[in-house]
Write a structure and sequence with these properties.
- It contains four helices and four strands.
- The protein has 134 residues and is an alpha+beta fold.
- It has one domain.
- It has a four-stranded mixed β-sheet.
- Strand 2 and strand 3 form a beta hairpin.
- The longest helix is centred in the N-terminal third of the chain and has 20 residues.
- The termini are far apart.
């Protein structure tokens, strides 16, 4: 089971998440987190069936050297196999949010060096008023 969970995490970690909606609607960080949760749940359910609900944890804290760090999604079966967080550039992202995300990843990686961590990014949309500027 552990090898299978690891294999799935590696396979779907780099999969591009594309959630297109008709019309223009700006999505924030919570929307990115919702996409991660939905896609992770879908993949786990296809692979593990009903066991999927026990493997996926939302807003889950991973202990590390300095503190526990919360991620939008963690796939765990006694130990974490995969963690993911979402960020959206469809809205203005404060530098402190980007710095906090990088710090959490660094902190977790200092104690869980082999843990795959994905950052799902909702990129700018061409329709955004500041697309050319950014």
């Amino acid at each position: 089971m552990d090898a299978l969970v690891e294999d799935i995490a590696n396979k779907y970690l780099s999969e591009l998440v594309s959630e297109s909606t008709p019309g223009f609607k700006i999505r924030d960080r919570q929307a990115a987190a919702k996409i991660i949760k939905s896609k992770t749940r879908e993949v786990l359910k296809q692979t593990f069936g009903e066991q999927a609900q026990d493997l996926m944890k939302s807003d889950y804290e991973i202990p590390s050297k300095l503190e526990n760090n919360k991620f939008d999604v963690v796939v765990t079966n006694g130990r974490p196999y995969y963690a993911a967080d979402g960020i959206s550039f469809e809205v203005d992202v404060p530098d402190r949010l980007q710095d906090a995300l990088l710090w959490r990843i660094s902190d977790v990686k200092s104690s869980e060096t082999n843990l795959p961590i994905a950052i799902v990014v909702l990129p700018l949309k061409v329709e955004q008023h500041n697309y050319q500027q950014i």
